[in-house]
Amino acid sequence: MKIAILGAGAMGCLYGGTLAEAGHEVVLIDVWKEHVEALNTSGLQIEEPDRIRRIENIRAVTHPSETGAVELVIVFVKATLTEQAAREAFCLVGEETMVLTLQNGLGNVEKLNSVMGLSHVIAGTTGHGSTLLGPGRIRHAGTGETVIGEQSGGRSERIAALASTFNHAGIATKISENVMGLIWTKLIVNVGINALTAVTGMRNGQLVDYPETESLMRAAIDEACAVARSKGICFEVADPFEHTRNIAKKTAENRSSMLQDVMAKRRTEISVINGAIVELGEKLGIAVPVNAVLTKLITVREKTYNLSDGAA
Ligand code: PAF
Question: Catalytic pick from 111, 186, 231, 296?
Fold first, then answer.
């Protein structure tokens, strides 16, 4: 299968590398020139607890215009860049192209629909944890399930074929017939883990080792669940807090994507995770104080990246 990965960060490289290793024709697309050069000259290195995988048969480019239409686009850019990236990547989409978003946060599906066209867009979530170590190198720090689904529900032929392609490549994948529930279930995980790890500097697993962070995680999740319930969202799991706890444990050694962003002084996805809960909570008249505090703390962190250590 011809596959383009839009956004070759830690997760884009993990999926792209794994699919290339299984024999698919993969092109990674990323604006970071040094990373693209390293991928083209030395391939991709994926560090795992028990082995190091080297993937040589992978191509990387800095702009979608350097490659033609593909059968599958997997979108892994930061949620804050989805619309712009989609516009630039429109040239990747042919009549039958599937565009799969496995990004964090709310609003990605809607943005992709408006640029790529609703019939092309498939939604999904990933429970994997991965860290970008440097140009051409990532660490796969925790395995989890991939779940994908058609926006209209049901089990189409293409979604079954895609799940089977992923499973054959070693990416354990299930199909969901409840895409909004799926996206909200993942959102809850990010609401519980990402900002708290970014504020405290903890790895995912440490959050549940301390009663203070665990209770904040529960409070942030309870608020998000109240918002979801009032929107009629049906979760994919019975207990969203327990589910998040399990993912924190399974990806214990991983630094969440938001902690990685803060450490690298990059813009975070706070506005489409905890910030989205605050916005909806305010609209719906639901109290969301813990999410409001987390959103403000991360926002001010972003604003002070450029102050000297003493001043910040
Ligand atoms: O954003 C992330 O880092 C991931 O979605 C997750 C599951 C929290 C693992 O680190």
Answer: 186
